[in-house]
Each structure stands twice: as C-alpha cells, then as structure tokens.
Amino acid sequence: MLSKSTKLKITVLLLGFAILLLLMCGSLIFGYANTNLKIAYDAFTSFDGSNEHIIIHNVRLPRALIGAVVGASLAIAGAIMQALTKNPLASPSVFGINAGAGFFIVVAVSLFYVDSLQAYTWIAFAGAATTAFVVYFIGSFGREGLTPMKLTLAGAAMAALFSSLTQGLLVVNESALDQVLFWLAGSVQGRKMESLLSVLPYVAPAIILSMILSQKINVLTMGEDVAKGLGQRTGFVKLTAALIVIVLGGGSVAVAGPIAFIGIVIPHFARFLVGNDYRWIIPYCAVLGGALLVFADILARFIVMPEEVPVGVMTALIGTPFFVYIARRGFGQK
C-alpha cells in the first residue's frame, strides 16, 4: 500500500481525477480530424457549425463521456466481484457476464430485430443476471462448495459458450453481422449521447450505492461468520452487491460492448495504492477505470490511422500481461 494516510489518499484520488479530466480533454482533441484545444473550447463557447465543431460535439464528446462511465463501471464491478468471491481473477469478462449480456443482445438483434437503445439496456441486464446466476450455480457444485477456482472455471466455460453461440448466430444471420460485429469487439467509437443517457439512470445510482455499501463489503471480506457475528445481514449485502454488478456490467455492455480486463486490472492497482479498504478502493476504481479506458480509446485512434482499432482490443493488449501475473500470484504458482 503506497498511500497510508487519509490526506495522502485524498491527494492521490484528486490527482487521478485530474488525470481523468485531462485524458477526456485529450479525447476531444486527438484523432484523425485536425483539432486543437482552442477549437475544442470554441466548439462549446461559440459553436459555428463547422466540421471540426460538429465532430467534437457529436463524436468525441460522447465517446469521452462513455469511456469514463464504462471504465468506472467495469472497474467497480470487478472490485465488488473480487471481494464477494475472494477470487483475484473475478471480473465481468472472466465470469462470462459480458459475454452473456452480449449474447442476449445479439439474439435480440438477429432474431427479433430489436433496435431500441432502451431495449438493449434491459436485454443486457437480463443477460448479465442470467449468466451470473448460472456461473454461481455451477461453481457451487461439489463437495467443497463454492471455491475461487471453480467459479473461474465456470465463468470461463460460460464465456466460451456464449461467445460460440454468438458467433453461430452471426454466421446464420449475416444481415446482423455488420450491425453488431464492431460492437462485439468492444468500442466507444460512433456511440451517441443517447446510448449513455439510456443507461445512466441505472448506472449512476449503482455507482453511488456501491460506495454506500463499501463499509459492509469490508466487514463481509473478514468472513461470513464474522460478519454475521457483527450483526450484518450478509444475504442482503450479497444480493445488493450482485445487483450492482449486474447493472454495471450489463449497462456497460449495452453501451460499448463486452470490454475485457478493466475489471481485473484496476481493482488490483487500487489495492496497491490504498490497501484493502473498499471505502477507498471503489472511488479509486471509478477514477482509474475511467482514465484507463479513455486512454486506451485515444491510443486506439493512432495504431492503424486513418482506421481505428476497437478499444476492446487495446484493453486486451494492456491487460493481458497483468492477467497472467495476477493468475500466477493469485493461485499460488511460482
């Protein structure tokens, strides 16, 4: 733990928030269209209808905001899942929640021709909830009951199953391929502000509730028997935390597709900075998760310019080495 005093933790958190704001400003400026800070400032203070101002308003501002919200949501969801399951690899992507939500949306698009943003949101929630229940149920089988390894294997199996089913549907229904292929790779490119506004009424309260619940999560991580001995209603806390994960994971998939590794890497980095106190981990995850996804989105614009790489590819490139390290350390390999 690097930040030991409360004052230092607040200072580092504010510094992280400042970095997030700078990255969001960079997201408004950098890209294929030639813009700068003055043009971006003029786009909001004296909009003239030029191509540059339209791009900043209609393209770059939504993707900057979506990147920050989705990154924060995935990181918080990962932190809560790791706390509840005591599994260092727990995250919406590893446990198949992203893949399940994505599969449900692909089914809705390819078979039922759904094209409503509000419908995508509720369908993603349903997919996330179904996957979470199935993974928990499968991971609980056996004499030892629920274990981190069994949860990881169950999540990986469900992720592979839903990914295979998704690809199969797209092969059968080629007309839906163009509509969802880029989205399935995980991307904030081309997303409209309406996409964010469709999930924000659910995601924002879930983020706030996660911070309110953080102290109870601290108690729960001490062990269920200890938590019950201290008078905590552990069933209620677990159910509330699970609902938060479903809303944050499903909402993120509905807006940006299944983006991996944010939910694994950021919670570990937050614990490295502030220790195991979830009163600090969750706000740190919100800031650092948003910053990482916005940063990855900026990088994605320059790798194969003038084309863009889906931001999900960038987060995979950034997160894979961390995933390997965490997996080796978390399961006791040398």
From TrEMBL:
CDD domains membership: TM_ABC_iron-siderophores_like
InterPro entries: ABC_BtuC-like, ABC_transptr_permease_BtuC
Pfam family, one: FecCD
Location(s), subcellular: Cell membrane
Membrane protein topology class: Multi-pass membrane protein
Keywords associated with the record: Cell membrane, Membrane, Transmembrane, Transmembrane helix, Transport
Molecular function in Gene Ontology: transmembrane transporter activity
Biological processes, Gene Ontology terms: siderophore-iron import into cell
GO cellular component, as recorded: plasma membrane
Spans traversing the lipid bilayer: 12-33, 64-81, 93-113, 119-139, 151-173, 193-214, 281-303, 309-327
UniProt cross-references to SUPFAM superfamilies, sorted A to Z: ABC transporter involved in vitamin B12 uptake, BtuC
Main location: membrane
Domain of life: Bacteria
Annotated family: Belongs to the binding-protein-dependent transport system permease family. FecCD subfamily.
Record's protein name: Iron ABC transporter
Species name: Metabacillus litoralis
Lineage of producing organism: Bacteria, Bacillati, Bacillota, Bacilli, Bacillales
